[in-house]
Amino acid sequence: MRIAAPLAVFLVGLAYLILAPPFQVPDEYMHFGRTLNLLEGHARAEKQGERMGYRIPCAAAYLMEKMPKSVEFRSEGKYDWAAFWRLNAESQNKPGVCFWEIDRGSLQMHVPFLYAPQVVGTAIAKFFTSKPAMWLYAARAANLIFCFLVLFGLLKISPNRNLRLFFFATLPMLLHIFASASGDAMVIILAFVYFFQLLDTLSQREITTNRWIILGVSALFISVAKSIYFPLILLVPFAAWRERSRRAWLFATAIVLLSFVVLVGWNLIVRHDYYSTAAYGMAPALQVRHLLEHPIAGVFAVLRGFIDNAAKIAVTYFGVFGWLSVIMPLPWYLAYFIFGSFIFIVTRAEIDNLRTPRWPFVLVALGTLLLLSLVMYITFTPVGFAYTKGIQGRHLMPILPFLFAALSGVARWHSYAHVLEKFALPIVLCFHGIALWQIYARFN
Hints:
Blueprint: H1 4-19, H2 28-39, E1 46-48, E2 51-57, H3 58-66, H4 81-91, E3 97-101, H5 116-128, H6 132-157, H7 162-169, H8 172-178, H9 184-202, H10 209-225, H11 236-243, H12 246-275, H13 284-293, H14 295-308, H15 310-318, H16 330-346, H17 359-380, H18 393-396, H19 400-407, H20 417-443
Antiparallel strand pairs: 1-2, 2-3
Helix pairs in contact: 1-6, 1-20, 2-5, 3-4, 5-6, 6-7, 6-9, 9-10, 10-12, 11-12, 13-14, 13-17, 14-17, 16-20, 17-19
């Protein structure tokens, strides 16, 4: 499992990289734009009057403006590959750097390190070719390779927890993201790293300084990557509570405070640029006022976000095919859900061996879910709307390992875990084989 699983992740991800058309993975065109903006030496977006955008090569801007994005491709026709390659050739005649306006629904409050692999891959491709299509595929490949190496390391150092990580790492939605230019790949892989570092730290009777530093670095990266995941860092002081020493509390407090300061600092740097641009239609101040004036309605709206978005959450957790205009048969989703549930039944919960109560994991995971809905209600939902709009399964991926670690594990089934390990890989490959065929048939 420790060798075969990450290799399978890489090979299946490579298939998604090839078969998923350009800019059809969620917001991939925007992530590609951010990558190119960083390559031009800009960590933030740029304002031009009421417009917000990036400075990117005109060749890439031309290609992205002419080809349909994921939010535009809803026709019953096939993807126009001929037009894509023709526009790719034409774009070489567009020299220089251009201002490329971002969509009104896209925030620019990302952090640059989420695009480190994509920047490296794109920079290498730009050295050899002027075709922006090659830059995109190089960014995809670099993202996939990075995620593969991290997963390989996690599976190698965590042999007792590899089955559950294998399930998370092979979700179709996640492999789509790993094999794209999306910065969400880095966010999710960092969440896995932090989760396993936290478990390893909690398993130590006496936590060394090096262990605190490693945990602190992983906590800093995941909390700063996206502000809605900051509550996950509140589990760090729990390690200090177990050790019960002044030194441990100093380390835990420093990790939480540093993560909070860096997170707030970056958001203060970039938020004014975006929200002061009235044309983008966001009204967080008015939405907060509405919540204060109608707190009960606001609470119901935050909770209803998960109910009214249930179909989108399910589809974009077990497979992004709904976004790609490829809806898998209902039995396929049910079978994948049952298979995943069985993994969490037969696999011992990670925190059982740590003699650690489960309630902190449950509380923090549920709190993060509520914060996710609240933040999206304030920033992405029309003022006074009945429920939070836009919650997707990919937003839940960094959170669910923490929740499942606390809610899963049935002792009488633990003896069957080694049997499941033998069959998990071929079963997952069968699911992906069906999904990849559906994508190929839909777009080609």
